[in-house]
Design brief:
Layout lengths: L4 H13 L2 H8 L3 H15 L14 H29 L4 E6 L1 H18 L4 E6 L2 H9 L5 E5 L7 E16 L3 H4 L6 H4 L5 E2 L9 H9 L2 E2 L3 H9 L5 E4 L10 E5 L6 E9 L5 H13 L2 H4 L5
Parallel strand pairs: 1-2, 1-3, 5-6
Antiparallel strand pairs: 3-9, 4-7, 4-8, 4-9
């Protein structure tokens, strides 16, 4: 028996709900049909995916299968969406994914440029962290990506876009923001620090000690800024982010932190719509976004 994506979807839904009836309702199937599909899946594997007769506790194998199945179901759904979008793209399609801080800077002008040059063009814009950007470009779910750091990818060109310095991000009325002298790395040691993924690009040894001692990590930029805005916590982010933070939060350079975040433009070399992809690449590279992000650098 071949394992089909709907079998994986069925298993994932049951595992997530812990309930056959709720899973059947979400899938639009009868409870008996869901139960039968699960039984066939387990018979194919020759092992149980759940412990006991109830479906609210996964077996050790079931947990592994769930992790793998969720990824496959998401990839399948994304592929179907891309296929349908491509079929509708009579005048072409461009798929772009970017880290949020740069996407907020680039996307508005890029949309105006591309829609005026290519009337009827279908454009798909997404944001994500650097690893999600790289996965999308490497996996052909995006034609162009903008990510932090240089990461060689097969079949993908990588071109430097800009650099921006790292600095302290904290509530506007935080003592390190309001005092006359600029903060130093040593000033951060005594403060409750929130680590984020971009901090990993900083190599200064004294700052790495702060990261090693950080007990809290927040990956989502919006949640990070919300936490910092409350007043107690501080973090370090690239200067580009400062252009989009609320008034209650501020960015300030750190006097002895020279590290910079490097941003690269990733372009699939065999994009389906080559002319459109090249026009998008050329616009981003010639737009001067990088210069705008290096104020006070």
């Amino acid at each position: 028996m071949a394992v089909k994506v709907e079998m994986l979807r069925c298993f994932c839904t049951v595992a997530q709900t812990g309930n056959l009836a709720e899973a059947a309702s979400r899938l639009g199937r009868t409870q008996s049909a869901v139960s039968m599909m699960l039984k066939q899946f387990e018979e194919h594997l020759g092992k149980k995916l759940f412990e006991g007769e109830r479906k609210n506790h996964l077996s050790p194998l079931g947990q592994q299968v769930l992790d793998l199945s969720l990824k496959q179901v998401r990839d399948f759904d994304q592929a179907v969406q891309n296929i349908e979008l491509a079929a509708q793209a009579e005048h072409g399609l461009i798929r772009i994914v970017s880290v949020p801080s740069v996407g907020a800077l680039v996307f508005p002008a890029l949309l105006d440029h591309m829609t005026s040059r290519f009337p009827g063009l279908k454009i798909e814009l997404r944001d994500g962290d650097s690893q999600q950007v790289l996965d999308a470009v490497a996996g052909d779910t995006s034609d162009i990506g903008i990510a932090s750091g240089h990461h060689p990818l097969n079949g993908v060109s990588a071109e430097p876009l800009f650099q921006d310095r790292f600095g302290l991000v904290a509530a506007s009325d935080h003592p390190l923001m309001t005092r006359a002298e600029p903060p130093a790395i040593s000033d951060l040691v005594a403060e409750p620090f929130v680590r984020n993924a971009l901090c990993d690009f900083i190599e200064s040894a004294s700052f790495r000690e702060i990261l090693d001692g950080a007990e809290v990590t927040i990956h989502n930029t919006h949640s990070l800024i919300t936490t910092v805005r409350a007043g107690q916590w501080i973090t370090v982010l690239p200067q580009t982010v400062a252009q989009f933070i609320p008034d209650a939060v501020a960015f300030r350079p750190i006097s002895d932190l020279p590290d910079r975040r490097e941003v690269y433009l990733y372009v699939r070399e065999r994009a389906r719509f080559r002319e459109i992809s090249e026009a998008c690449r050329s616009f981003v590279l010639s737009s001067g976004f990088g210069n705008a992000s290096q104020v006070n650098a």
